[in-house]
Amino acid sequence: MSDRGILIVVSGFAGSGKGTVMERLLSGYDNYALSISATTRAPRDGEVDGRHYFFVDTEKFERMIEEGELLEYARYVSNYYGTPKSYVEKELSRGKDVILEIETKGALSVKERFPDTLLLFIMPPDADEIYNRLKKRGTESEEVIRARMSKAGEEAKLIERYDYLITNDDLDDCVSKVHSIIQAAHLSVSRSSDRIRAMQEQLKKYS
Amino acid sequence: MSDRGILIVVSGFAGSGKGTVMERLLSGYDNYALSISATTRAPRDGEVDGRHYFFVDTEKFERMIEEGELLEYARYVSNYYGTPKSYVEKELSRGKDVILEIETKGALSVKERFPDTLLLFIMPPDADEIYNRLKKRGTESEEVIRARMSKAGEEAKLIERYDYLITNDDLDDCVSKVHSIIQAAHLSVSRSSDRIRAMQEQLKKYS
Known about the structure:
The structure is a homodimer. Chain A is α/β, with parallel strands linked by helices. The first copy, chain A, has eight helices and nine strands. Chain A has two domains: 1-31 and 97-207, 3-Layer(aba) Sandwich (Rossmann fold); 36-94, Guanylate Kinase phosphate binding domain, CATH 3.30.63. Chain A binds chain B through residues 121, 123, 126-128, 130-131, 146, 149-150, 152-153, 156-157, 159-167, 177, 180-181, 183-185, 187-189, 192, 195-196, 198-200, 202-207, and chain B through 121, 123, 126-128, 130-131, 146, 149-150, 152-153, 156-157, 159-167, 177, 180-181, 183-185, 187-189, 192, 195-196, 198-200, 202-207.
């Protein structure tokens, strides 16, 4: 195990169940921390500052952008959402594997700046399942659902740029696969330079 | 899961316990097949042709080399050892993950010819452990042990060219790590083109 944690970005289609997978990962294992986003939108009932989000005003958010304090950010409608670097950095250096759940564009921009990031994409077993899950929510019009399906089509073109693709057809199985992928990443040679160097040094005594 | 199996090469220092790890992997999970080597040396008591080795004569072995029927081979003292391609290919196409347990040089030459191969290196927690395990066997002179330690020093320089490094300080833990690495490899995007293409096709219906 490397001492420093790994930065993991998880994306997935609407209806992929990725939110539940993340919850299970966080409650089932103690080596994970979920990144907390900053946002300029108002807190909803029950949302706690510093736990669900860091709630900031637009002026503060724009200062964070200017001062390079965000790993990535995006603007939806009139609100900003972004990932504060300091929280992620603190958790990584404590040895936690930090998970960001963000969209494809943000994911790829994080990977570009930090090539060491592990990019995971979660999808349901087939496209009908995406449609059916959106339909079942009953909160969106057919038009909105169609727009989301067409967005999924766009996102699907970016999967090749991720590192791993996990099909969520069984929740337990999906959680255990995601955990295996992250455990394996800790053992990759590129993350094991300390162990390699230590062994090489010890062997010198015998030569 | 990809339908085709993955070719895995496992190497490790003398005393790394890799033989036991392989046994446990084969008896604990049903997706693995161990590659069977061809050799020109005589069978020892209890060794069965086609199970422990494919026993062939020198003429036959040299014909296999000439006709490109070996994934890799080496000559130790006056005997040849090599990996017949046909057996590995048959198991991979049946969807088995095929494990070759071979030395660093052979491992790297397999990787060069088949870049898709997963290279795993297993080592004990520290170099003293290698020395102590060799010593405990009691079958080798101090001189032979020293030669093996110096060989380990040479091998250690090649670990950086492997994909994963697993420290064997606890057998169960080591077996489960090796299994996780292989399971994760099946989910890598580079091994998931079929799943990606299928999803992209299905999403076209909705756009």
